[in-house]
Each structure stands twice: as structure tokens, then as C-alpha cells.
Write a structure and sequence with these properties.
The chain has one helix and two strands, in the order αββ. The chain is α+β, with helices and mostly antiparallel strands and about 60 residues long. Strand 1 and strand 2 (about 40-45) form a beta hairpin.
């Protein structure tokens, strides 16, 4: 499984027992460089909480 900033490595999903759900229509992932070497076939529903406010400009 290839990872990009928008995907999770399968080992993280397993390590933290994150529930995944299949999506009805898989999506071919297109990277900015034009490559397409991954298909998105599952989704996760996560809530992220940070202990400190973000620093810097985003």
C-alpha cells in the first residue's frame, strides 16, 4: 500500500484498531506529478484533538 499525505499506512490502522469502511465506488488517486499508483477503496471517520494550538501560518 502506497502512502501519501492523504492516506494512512495499513500498519497504523491495525496498530490503533481504527475501524475502516468500504466505499461504494473506489477512486483512482491522482498525485500532483500525474502518477496514479493507488486506489482509494476504504474510508475512516476520525476526530483529531491537539493538546496545543497550532503555530505558524497555514
Amino acid at each position: 500500500m502506497s502512502t501519501s499525505p492523504n492516506t494512512f499506512d495499513l500498519s497504523i490502522i491495525k496498530k490503533y484498531a481504527i475501524p475502516v469502511s468500504p466505499i461504494s465506488l473506489p477512486v483512482l488517486l491522482h498525485f500532483f506529478d500525474g502518477s496514479t499508483n493507488a486506489v482509494i477503496s476504504q474510508e475512516v471517520d476520525l476526530s483529531l484533538h491537539f493538546s496545543h494550538p497550532p503555530q505558524g501560518t497555514y
